[in-house]
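Renewal narrative, Specific Aim 1. Our central claim is that a sequence can be written position by position from structural information alone. The example that follows is taken directly from our test logs and has not been curated for this report. It begins with the structure tokens describing the chain, in the order in which they were read.
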């Protein structure tokens, strides 16, 4: 995005500074500068191994409230606290069940978030006013260095507008957030491209609140049987995790799901027949099978779920940027390895409530 090492974006005098950082060995002076922004109550967008986060000092309730304002997110949607070690996480909780220890040891640093009982030090604003708190230790060197430099937990949701598509490159952040973010650390594309798996460990059995980059089978290997997966609840019903609202992770364009590449192509064809430009996302098959109209922008994504996850949000962002009116997506396989992707697609396709 920025050709120089540092550039300013945004309008009306509250420009966001962009600093390019090496994703593996970030320049300590850039990290120090970002930590100072957090220290004085400012907001910093930064890369993690899942998606870009919008960070605030977790113990600063005013800074945390600004995160909600910048995202346009309702204040009852709790934020994840990012730490560097299990000990730092424990200090945020009033109880640390055995399952939390086992998950932390198996997956941290990494894309796994545990929900535990909230400790006294954590401002209620972080937890959306609730009695629990979500914590994770990211693996990304930039995220890790930033939290270490601050010496305190960083509260960070994904760096997108409420219900929008999560950002997997810095340009996606710049597209959605303008005012109120002081600094963006641009560390290139995120590795996983899909958010962390969120697991509530307060019950008898761990319960997955959001499928994500750590698969269900990986979880079972560490903690045994899981509580039945949370079903998609209609909007308006009480949610075990607020991020489970039916419509979420959605592009601007209307998103439709179709069974099989053939049906997806026919749906895209029918939509474009009325003059609309339409996006079509199918699973990779024969590269020569692209017999589609000029108004259909076809993207073939990998049949490997991890690669597919890395490509998905970037593909939807790109199609949105090209101004398509609708995006038809071929349904992904129904087996468990695809559950996080199927979850995001279902929510992206849900009607506005
Ligand atoms: O990969 C990720 O998790 C990214 C990066 C930046 O770490 N963060 C992220 O944050 O996706 P956010 O705020 O966009 O999504 C957090 C999810 C939501 O579904 C939220 O409802 C859930 O975690 N969550 C957070 N705190 C919770 C809590 N105390 N109880 C239940 N669910 C919680
Ligand atoms: Mg999010």
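The sequence written for that structure reads:
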């Amino acid at each position: 995005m920025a050709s120089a090492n540092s550039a300013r974006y945004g309008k009306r005098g509250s420009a966001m500074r962009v600093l390019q950082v090496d994703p593996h060995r970030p320049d300590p002076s850039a990290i120090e500068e970002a930590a100072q922004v957090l220290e004085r109550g400012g907001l910093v967008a930064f890369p993690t191994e899942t998606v870009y986060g919008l960070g605030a000092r977790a113990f600063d309730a005013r800074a945390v409230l600004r995160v909600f304002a910048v995202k346009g997110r309702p204040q009852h949607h709790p934020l994840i606290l990012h730490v560097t070690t299990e000990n730092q996480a424990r200090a945020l909780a009033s109880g640390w069940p055995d399952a939390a220890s086992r998950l932390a040891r198996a997956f941290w640093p990494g894309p796994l978030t545990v929900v535990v009982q909230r400790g006294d030090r954590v401002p209620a604003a972080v937890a959306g006013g609730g009695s629990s708190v979500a914590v994770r230790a990211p693996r990304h060197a930039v995220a890790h260095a930033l939290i270490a430099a601050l010496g305190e937990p960083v509260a960070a949701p994904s760096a997108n507008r409420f219900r929008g598509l999560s950002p997997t490159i810095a340009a996606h952040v710049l597209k959605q957030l303008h005012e109120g973010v002081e600094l963006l650390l641009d560390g290139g594309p995120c590795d996983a491209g899909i958010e962390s798996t969120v697991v509530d460990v307060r019950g008898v059995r761990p319960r997955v609140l959001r499928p994500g980059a750590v698969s269900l089978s990986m979880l079972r290997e560490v903690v045994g049987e899981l509580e039945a997966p949370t079903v998609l609840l209609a909007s308006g019903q009480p949610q075990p995790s607020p991020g489970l609202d039916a419509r979420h992770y959605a592009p601007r364009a209307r998103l439709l799901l179709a069974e099989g590449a053939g049906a997806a192509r026919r749906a895209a064809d029918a939509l474009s027949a009325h003059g609309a430009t339409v996006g079509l996302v199918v699973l990779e098959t024969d590269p020569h099978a692209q017999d589609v109209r000029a108004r259909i922008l076809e993207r073939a994504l990998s049949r490997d779920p991890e690669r597919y996850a890395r490509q998905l949000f970037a593909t939807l962002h790109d199609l949105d940027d090209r101004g398509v009116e609708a995006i038809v997506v071929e349904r992904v396989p129904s087996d468990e390895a695809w559950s996080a992707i199927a979850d995001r697609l279902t929510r992206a396709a849900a009607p506005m409530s």
